[in-house]
Design a protein that fits this description.
homodimer, 414 residues, Arc Repressor Mutant, subunit A, Nucleotidyltransferase, domain 5, five-stranded mixed β-sheet
């Protein structure tokens, strides 16, 4: 029942959406309001207001109810308008190499929830999108509408997305034109169209590690800072910069490639084609290899992390070396960029202080004294959902003009 | 004859200034216009337009003339309004360690000129400001108004600054709140007030190396790019980042400190307090020291640069090593930030290709292959005037709301 929506609407449609945004913003700010209170606060005429509210109620964004205290009074009880807590305003989807993660916020900008599911590396895009739809469905069980899958028309029905504004999508690797509707990454041909057809709203795409950086700066470990350096230590090593509260992307989208900063010019060959990159020393595989070379016994990153938690000496020694190399690279970036907070995420960050202490020590050692006390190092707090949450942040923070609401359902298709 | 001006004016004054800006913008865009043409294009009422134009003529921003072709016609010739090419709109002043540089742009946003003068390192701020006023005077000899110095009231009279909007000032070292009127740097107490009293307009302050970066991105070697990394190799080593056309400053103004990135942890002690900084290897003094150690004979940076120009083998060898170290550091920053153009400035850049070729070679070697062809390396083109020009760019680009014109002179003080 979602009507078709188009990113390029005329001025009247834009004006209507702007009014809708004002009404939603007032409900976000003040909680439930009567139509009269809404009229005073919004400055909209009675006719316009009733029309806008009717549309929002039809789309499921706003619900009308009578508070208990009002219902007990004499006379006709006053109806109050409130945001529908089951109405998703923005959805984030992270298409990682072997997993899909989703998250959604409602119109009150509360995170409704997040969910994830692993899959084979060679799964097709339509199948990955199916996983995303199923996961989103699982987040909104209490929502009105049919319970599952698609209605055959190619549009999502299961989740209550009547008030959906846009979808923020994270993908692996560098993207051109990141953060926009025309964004593109290698090997994802067809994905944006697939999602647009499925959900009927604009699709904004960016690198998923960069989205995790944005999420940590908005909801995570650095929610108090607007200048954030996020480093992810996982199967790959990368990150992102948030500058003045906005994602920094760089020319051609090539920024946050911290994993390819040279640490040891005489070191090992990296997947990127050069030698001695931080990634060859600090990725999960590299750490596991170094652990075995130091006499440790572990077959998987999880086993290594267990050993580190158990304070196994070779594991701690490897983490001390890795931390020192990471800290040196972070110091170089700090001198260039000057972040207020450094957030370390990815699986390796689960090693906690065994990693973060040597990171911080090397960082301070390589920072000019003047800068030493102007930056905090923290562990990421959002975990695997980070990039999906970043997709939401992308929608909410970077697309103020994409206020995209469906038209009221006409009698024809109601 | 400059009337007092205040940064916090009421809405009517702001409205007036907005009208003044519109009129100036039209003259910038279309060249000389008659009052009738101006009326059509500006959409201002006849009364408002005549009033605004009268004010601009009185302040010296706009001149009225009759073009030759019009004067030859029968009947009353049509007067045309044009920008006064002698009216300075923005002034930049760079207070370097031992020199003052100034530059000015007129209302057509043409650089009127630049000038500089050396002085002793311990010269007082009032004396440095006197030098700045004298240098500005030298730029505007043909301008109306008294020819020299100050009128005793503490306001500049010599230069025709009737239409001056603000002054952008570069100072040495990190600044807090950079680019704003409340900016501050260590050891400059009293300077902003001194300038404000002298010129009667807002004073915007920033680090002078960062301003040079902005200038190269606006008028210099990287005028075609909005993502620029500027490195200055001089007595110190520093730089600045321009991101999306705007100066990037970082938390606490601590960015662009490229000279304090560690290159050799076992290296020499740096003035900043740590060891092995790029500055200990690539500053003019460091290069001179390394040149002597390599058997070269030079007593000054100028002699070293002469030797390099004459292709003296030890000089070239030292530049090759310095270039390689610089290129490695630049590659690290590129991975983090992703600039489109790298501009190398400062005295050492005068060595030309003997320096820039090894820089570029090391840069490409340490950049991931994917990023290798997305960045250009160029020599700075603005020379010593760069920071003063950056002060102007600061005024024009970062203070759209500080459109600060004097009130028309009243009969009282005319």
């Amino acid at each position: 029942m979602l009507s078709g929506m188009h990113p390029h609407d005329g001025p009247l449609t834009r004006l209507r959406r702007s009014h809708e945004q004002s009404v939603l913003e007032l409900l976000r700010k003040y909680g439930p309001l009567s139509r009269a209170e809404m009229g005073t606060r919004s400055g909209l005429s009675r006719t316009t207001l009733y029309d806008i509210v009717a549309g929002l109620v039809t789309s499921g964004a706003v619900v009308v109810g009578t508070p208990y205290v009002e219902a007990r009074k004499r006379g006709r009880p006053v109806e109050k308008l409130s945001l529908n807590p089951a109405a998703g305003e923005a959805v984030g989807i992270d298409f990682a190499r072997r997993a899909v993660h989703v998250a959604a916020v409602n119109l009150a900008h509360e995170v409704v929830g997040s969910a994830g599911e692993g899959h084979a590396a060679d799964l097709s895009w339509p199948e990955r999108v199916d996983i995303a739809v199923r996961l989103l469905d699982s987040l909104t069980t209490g929502a009105p509408g049919p319970e599952s899958g698609s209605d055959g028309s190619g549009r999502a029905q299961a989740v209550h997305l009547g008030a959906l504004r846009a979808i923020g999508v994270g993908v692996v690797g560098p993207t051109t034109d990141p953060g926009s509707e025309s964004a593109h990454a290698q090997g994802i041909d067809g994905l944006p169209d697939l999602l647009r057809k499925r959900f009927g709203v604009p699709v904004l795409l960016d690198n998923n590690t960069r989205l995790a950086a944005l999420a940590e700066a908005v909801w995570g470990a650095a929610a108090d800072s607007s200048d954030v350096l996020y480093l992810r230590l996982s199967h790959g090593v990368g990150g992102g910069l948030v500058v003045g509260g906005a994602l920094h992307r760089g020319r051609h989208g090539l920024s946050g490639e911290f994993g390819h900063i040279t640490v040891d010019p005489a070191g090992e060959r990296c997947e990127c084609g050069k030698t001695g990159c931080l990634e060859t020393l600090a990725s999960l595989d590299a750490v596991l290899r170094r652990y075995r070379a130091a006499g440790g016994g572990a077959d998987s990153p999880a086993q290594f992390l267990d050993a580190a938690t158990a304070a196994d000496p070779p594991a701690l020694e490897v983490l001390a070396r890795v931390g020192s190399e990471v800290g040196g690279v972070l110091a170089a970036i700090c001198h260039a960029v000057g972040p207020g907070v450094i957030v370390v995420g990815g699986e390796l960050a689960q090693a906690g202080d065994a990693l973060l202490e040597p990171v911080e020590q090397a960082l301070r050692q390589h920072l000019m004294p003047l800068a030493r006390h102007h930056v905090d190092v923290r562990r990421a707090t959002l975990g695997e959902a980070g990039s999906a949450l970043g997709g939401i942040a992308l929608v909410l923070h970077e697309t103020p003009l994409l206020t995209h609401y469906p038209q009221p359902v006409s009698e024809e298709n109601a």
